[in-house]
Amino acid sequence: MSTHSSTDTTTAPVVGGDPSTDQHRPATALEGRPGVPFSRTLQAELRKIVDTRAGLWMVVVMVGLAAVVLAAAVIWGSADDSSFNGLLQLATLPLATVLPILGIMAATAEWSQRTGLVTFALEPRRGRVVLAKAVASMLFAVLVLVVAVAASAFVNVVAGTGEWDLTAAVAGGLFLAMMLYVLQGVAFGLVFLNTPISIVAVLVLPSIWGIATQLIGRLETIGEWVNLDRVMVPLFAGEMGGQEWAQLATGVAAWVLLPLAIGTYRVLNREVK
Amino acid sequence: MITVENLTKRYGGFTAVDDISFQVRPGSVVGFLGPNGAGKSTAMRMMTGLTPATSGRATILGQTYRELHNPGRQVGVMLDASAQHPGRTGREILRVAAVSVGVSKERVEEVLALVGLTGEEAGRRVRNYSLGMRQRLGIAAALLGEPQVLILDEPANGLDPQGIHWMRGLLRRFADGGGTVLLSSHLLHEVQIVADDLVMIGRGRIVAMGSKDELLSRGGTTVRSTDDDRLAGLLDKAGVPVSRTGAGLTVDAEAEVVGRIAAEDRVVLLELRSGGSEGLEEMFLDLTAATSREGDAA
């Protein structure tokens, strides 16, 4: 019998089983910390991003878009822009739009396909699953970025100016921007827990806000601080000063951290059905 | 060992699960029986930490689900066989779960064989699975971590009669090895085959529980004769409560009492037995009629 006091003192009526014949295995819980180690949760989440057609195509589309943009730049672009920096800026341009969708798909999958019934039964600490999804999405973003860098370098050598003009500030800014975009996707996915709604929201809401801040004069100064695309411009250009960092922080707080907090709260407290 | 103590779930003014308590011991296969909407699934989700309980608690092996170390190694859970990504193959679904639970790829092949899914079937996308195949996949996932406890929601749903008997064998062997099984069903004949003990639930409340045999014997005696009208009259005269069913009479007395009355007055009996599935069926309908959806209209 269990040595746990909670089961010994229970008043619940017993159904089934014969108390006289002892069990072949002792009915006691395994020793150890609750849940499973984070490394395994992360590994499972990484696998889930690419083991469906949708996920695999997402990665293919991102790499393909970067390739198409680079090819277009070579064919129609002006030769002066075809430096390493110029090419990389072009290649990462479509990624800014598509990376959030990667994050969204990772965040919403458990709910749109109801696989959460299995995932959250295997790891009841849902916060760790959310963290694993965010980290897994960022790792894929890094992978895509690496491909974009390699492709830009290749084109630069083959058809570009051959100029290696990428500064550390721009490289760091690009990296940070990509991570923020994919995290924004995860955050929006967690808020809506529905893939199409999240995708529309992540594409449309910032645009509406952007237009609103331009049309309504009083909102203009606010727009400088809480318009994600706008506060990211100096990041891509590698021209971050004190005010730019502050504006980036407020923009990220409004468009990434706030939805991330709301979404995580939702997932932690929602009933998994 | 599964222990449920005063478990309650309320949604606003609606009480889905109303103060249920029971304990499932190792070595048993217990059927959680009730009509649709009786609260079976909600109760099972509360046991596995997926739905927060309004009050009361459930423990597995003496711990709440969220306290369990590597739950997949201790409790096999299948709450909805259809809740799988249709684009993944059966084998891939198990491999992802194997990563999380921390078991080998070989174990995945083992459980596939155990539930009777062939290599070809395991390589198919779940979109192309029949409900029966999804159930087998769900059972495979539940067994992956070699748990001591199984919690299965409607596992026999969609299985053919052969499949239901197969499941009985599988779960019986699991229980004989010291395992604890709680499975739900809204079909009496199904749960009668698979489970040995029953917990009946209607509108969130437990209405009966006990061993199947014990519950069966409460069904009275079923009797059929060449002249049921005459037999009913004789029984009535003898002060034995009797009621007509489609296929004979149900008598609230021992079979011997009925047999003696029939013999005295030379009524030819065609059938005489205690309880029987009709008895349990009737009880199930009785017990749930007052609490089921149909009951609202009556």
Automatic annotation (TrEMBL), chain A:
Residues 1-35 are annotated as: Disordered. Residues 1-12 have a biased composition (Polar residues). Coiled coil: none annotated. It comes from the Bacteria. The chain crosses the membrane at residues 56-76, 88-109, 130-154, 166-183, 190-212, 245-268. The keyword Magnesium does not apply. Keywords: Membrane, Transmembrane, Transmembrane helix. This is ABC transporter permease. It comes from Nocardioides hwasunensis.
Automatic annotation (TrEMBL), chain B:
CDD domains: ABC_BcrA_bacitracin_resist. The keyword Ribonucleoprotein does not apply. Keywords: ATP-binding, Nucleotide-binding, Transport. Belongs to the ABC transporter superfamily. It comes from Nocardioides hwasunensis. It holds the Pfam family ABC_tran. Residues 2-228 form the ABC transporter domain. SMART domains: AAA (SM00382). The lineage of its organism: Bacteria, Bacillati, Actinomycetota, Actinomycetes, Propionibacteriales. This is ABC transporter ATP-binding protein. One of its GO terms (molecular function) is ATP binding.
